[in-house]
Design goal:
The chain is α+β, with helices and mostly antiparallel strands. The protein has two helices and six strands, in the order E-E-H-E-E-E-H-E. It has a six-stranded antiparallel sheet with strand order 1-6-2-3-4-5.
Length: 93
């Protein structure tokens, strides 16, 4: 059985379900925050390795921001920030 591809959460579409595999701050240079601050913010919001994620909704114009369920919490996030969250698709209970 092959491993599902790892993509940036910012590239995912509504309905995507998976698990967080890593944070890659180099993939989000346009996030508007220094990398250590972006990392701290994402971790505080629950974007940690192994957490279940689901992309619930996106803004009408340009698809930004996105609404993401992480564990049992729904969070609004800009796609440019979500580019730092690396995920792989899988069935999430």
């Amino acid at each position: 059985m092959s491993n599902p591809p790892i993509i940036a959460l910012g590239d995912a579409r509504v309905g995507y379900r998976g698990r967080i595999r890593a944070l890659d701050l180099d993939r989000a240079p346009a996030a508007g925050l220094p990398p250590p601050e972006l990392e701290r913010r994402l971790i505080e919001l629950g974007f940690v390795e192994g957490a279940a994620v689901e992309l619930l909704h996106q803004g009408l114009f340009g698809g930004d921001p996105i609404a993401v369920r992480v564990a049992a919490t729904t969070i609004a996030l800009r796609r440019r920030e979500a580019m730092a969250v690396m995920v792989s698709a899988e069935t999430v209970p």
